[in-house]
Amino acid sequence: MKNISFGDTPVSRCVYYRLVCGLAANIDPPGSGRITFLAGGTGALTMPGTLGSVLRQHMQRHGVAVGPIVLHVGSNRWTFLVRPDVPDDDTRLFNQLFPLNVSIVRAGAIALPSPTGEPGGGSRRWIELPRNTFRPSARVVVDAILGCTGINRESRSLAVHHG
CB–CB of 98/51 below 8 Å? Predict the structure, then answer.
């Protein structure tokens, strides 16, 4: 975001998110400084920060491109922006992710970091900055979650994970 020559404001940030990252970002509500976009062409996987950190390291160690990651400071939750290619009706997958406190976001507003922060003291920051329109496949990220937590996707059972 250092490429923004007219200052770092909510408006300039929205322009960056739209033009460089392909995210239809808006200030919502107007004048608030809070930046969001509606899930659709981009979805998200949200999880506790401890799992997010392990997942990011796991993906990097295995040569998997990570993509943009947002940290919500107040709740210590990480949001991985992804291509929404996980089937809606995969209840087995939902049952695997639920105990890990992982949410699949397919609809609704997704908040992005803003230079003005958020009302009520909430704050979002980039763990991995978006530099273009790349988002990893949600399927790839889910497989990495299952891999780093020791869940065997094929047998749909928990496995003992060492290390």
Answer: no
